[in-house]
Amino acid sequence: KLTDLVKVGQIIGDTDAFIGAPIHSSVSGKVTKIDEIIGTDGNPIKAVEITTDKLQEIDESVKVPEVTDLQSFAAAIRASGLVGLGGAGYPTHVKLMPKNLDEVTTLLVNGAECEPYITADNRAMLEDTDDIVEGIKLVKKYMNLSTVIIGIEDNKPQAIAKLQAAVADIEGASVKALKAQYPQGGEKVLIYECTGKIVPEGKLPSDVGCVVMNVSSIAFVAKYMRTGMPLITKRLTVDGDAIAEPKNVEVAIGTSFSDVIDFCGGFKTEPKKIIMGGPMMGFAVPTINYPVLKNNNAILAFSAAKAAEAEKPETPCIRCARCVNACPFSLMPAAIEKAYKAGNVDALKALKVNLCMECGCCAYVCPAKRNLVAVNRLAKKMIVERSK
Q1: pTM of the prediction?
Q2: Residue 112's CB: how many other CB atoms inside 10 A?
Q3: Model confidence over 199-217: pLDDT tens digits?
């Protein structure tokens, strides 16, 4: 509550929901405001503002967890607040406890990082190699997995070579060089490219015997088991033609974009658009004072000239089918748009809009600049609302 004094690593928010994770303070100081901000999905979310005392005192609750089996391992990961750090933000402990655990045999470590500009995971593979290896060993041990595949795009030869050498002594572990092609890092795409398995509509990776974790997530598992410090920092890429000094930085979660950008030399030109995440799947933020979130892997700032390339007005669809050819799952975005505007839920289901991972390929190649990704997102919500 207001005026409470908090320390680093102290829980400041939690939920009883299974698919959820606690939030920990990344600084020590005083709670000066409890408010709401607009989340990346457009819905309001509660936010706690803490004015730091700059002492960074560690909370007494921070201690190395005791882990003896999968149950206690998953409980420790939940307590750490870990969610998917590649951008999806899905609670990691849920992945560790699939209903069909006996059928899950393979850990896929996602090192593809295929969106333009973003290089934070590449730095993790080069700088946190030992933690990635230790994290792999822990997940493999407690989930009793036989196979580990680290998928890395082939435009990252240093990371491939370093991890190949690092996992050489882990039985069943290998590194797979993937074609450098967006959206190679998409979960279902990665599973297919690494194993040849197809995740059916409405199913999870565990249904085809896989668990997928981002390289930064797997590295954090090792760090947490060694130190007991929950998830309070995030490595992210700061880039774009409006940023004076583009770089990768590790920042306290909750830090405002403005402070991060100031650390990177500020703006060299007036920004027209600031994006949380990559240019394909990221979200434009409403204010430069937006906080860094757990699943925030980049801050991109673009000038008016650069932003204008993606803000051209819509024109009528010319039925060229470029969107179909670009879709990783061969969906039909133009037909989905038509069905959505007609409110035809049965057609949306038949067109399998729920398979869409919102990668943005369709909108990117569309010569008419149709807002196809936004329509697909709304179409999926329409199906859910009608089903209620």
Answers
A1: 0.93
A2: 28
A3: 998 899 999 999 999 999 9
